[in-house]
């Protein structure tokens, strides 16, 4: 496993954590305090807002998990990876996208720029 796929595994684990306290701790460990997360549906900053955005996705799609979609790659402090949102019990994805994460010098995420390739409205 390389540093890129390790970061993606940790990132997806944060998105899949359903316990609010554990998710808040995981967000705090993975993201810098002033981190931003931006995609077509969200524009948030900081640990509390990122954790709330994740909780919102979980409330909208209960019983679904994010999993990797294709390999992760990157250069310098930038990581690019695909993901898909699928029922935890199996089945077709309801959303597919890719994110670009920028890390700080300690390897924590300071920015995520997300893109959606498939959304429930267009699925």
Automatic annotation (TrEMBL):
Transmembrane segments: none
Ranges for domain SnoaL-like: 8-109
Origin: domain of life: Bacteria
Protein name: SnoaL-like domain-containing protein
Pfam family of the protein (one): SnoaL_2
Species of provenance: Micromonospora humi
